[in-house]
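Deviations from the work plan: none for this task. Representative record:
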Amino acid sequence: MSTISLLTLILMILMILVGGKSGFTSFLSVVFNFLILFAAVILITGGISAIGVTFFAGVCILAITIFMGNKNETSTNTAFVATLIVMVIMLLLIVPLDYFAQIKGFSNEQSEEIEAFNLLVGANFETILISTTVLSTLGAIAEAAVAISSGLEELSEQNPGITIAEIFKSGRTIGFQIMGMTFNTLFFGMFGGDLALFILLYKLNANFGYYLNSKIFVGECMAVLYSAVAVILVIWITTYLMGRKINQKRKGTDF
Amino acid sequence: MLKLLLIVLSGLILYIFASNDAFLYKQPVGKVENVSVKSVSKTKDTFNNQDKITVQEVTFKILNGKYRNKIVKLRNTYSRSGGLDQEYKVGNQVFLTIKKHHGKVNSSISHYKRDVCLVMLLWLVIVLLYATMKLNGLKTLLSVAVNFVVFLIFVQLDVMLNLTHFFWLFAAAAFIFTILSLWLVIGVNKQWFVTCASVVSGTVIALLIGLIAMSVTNGKGVHYEALDYATQSPKQLFLAATVIGLLGTVMDAATDIVSTLFEMKRTDEKISEGQLFKSGMAVGRSIMGPLINVLLMIFFAETFTMAILYFKTGNSIAYTFEWTMALGIVQTLVSGIGVTLVIPCASFLSAKVLGGAQDVND
């Protein structure tokens, strides 16, 4: 048995023990997302436009992450719409900025791993990078959108008299609590992954000016910053959409 | 209105400054004045991948240092796929290496100037954070900055001490990260203590399970040597990276549960220990799936470029998976186990601490 199969088995058992049926559904959502990502890599290798594949895979991943394991329809629908809007905005932001930053492909620091390869493989590394960047933000925005929309739904149900201004205010308060922790998750996730890189850069005695301009460091920093932008945007948009929805619902019942 | 104007103005000033900051660098920076294509050739490798190679002659005007205003002509070769090279266009700024050797000046292209993009994106994040939450938003940024500095200090310690078992150094770093970040978010009180205790227990148990699973299966299918940039024992580096990655999500889950339970106790003082435990588990169930997906997306998306290179050069799916994705998947799985375990830990500890207590803050 390989290490990965054993760990997957342990994770599945633990998730079922802790979460019961919904734990199993959550486990399935992770497996499905993995399969979609894997299929996306194969499709891009096959020469299909990386941005097209990313968009399609992104919609599927958002749908799976948001709808599997959440039953409340109003809040999940809003969360889904909000994340789709954010994904489109992020594409519009990432495409030009990644072009100007030229952080595609591989860096000099990676030369040892890629020296065995002929790099003239006819792939478009620029669109692959865009795909990587967009996909890596999706998990965080899905989580934030669900947390805010379900929090606001709960709030409006418990206090039917709450005003729209108060809903927007609570949305920001909930958003603030989530954001602090989400930033930590993203930060530790990404910089934890780059631990070896930081040690290498330190050993190379790279100066600050080199850090600020090197492909690998700028690329990793921009990935963290993009995620931060995406999470902030999703907080705004989810709060706004949720407020509008609650408002409409009230008008419908009042008159 | 005035605020909006100030924000736009600050962005504009920052952009103009960053585009003209060549004088801050010691290394010569050249601005592309003119580009002409010298030759174009088509290539085809053994896997039938077609590519196009272009050689361009680039004329640089040097912007700083003792060679200021000098003109340099250099050749640049770039491919259409651009794995390790890039095309230069008029107006681009590029770092150059200029060396004097036996009276002859040798110059070459070093790397592209990227600081403008990085600075502008950082500006956008700060503006958005400030617009959303005023000064509180900047506090969030402070927490990340403090952790980053601690992280760099430990990297420096690692290089200086050159320990054989340097994993423990980063385990200690992880412990400090937990205490610091939670202190900045919650402040020092009972809630902070309970959250820290749950995070530490969840992380330690998950790591132990991961280590046992790896030794039982003899690490089959996991190639530590596939770790990028490894300059020290790759196994320990991987474990250290896993602990740090694991910590972020476990902290996220623990904070959600503990803060919800403390809030419940505040609104209803008579709530029982059993009820608290049950509610904690309910909160945990709803966040478990999305949290594990966050990590999956981060770890998996990072392997995209490498995986496509492997596939394009005729490697099988199984081989590509083992050498490019397996490490990221192990990290995701161990983190997932950590998130799942911290749910009962945090629920149990909060319930025990709050259950008999009369007051939340005693």
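Chain B touches chain A through 129 residues (CB under 8 Å).
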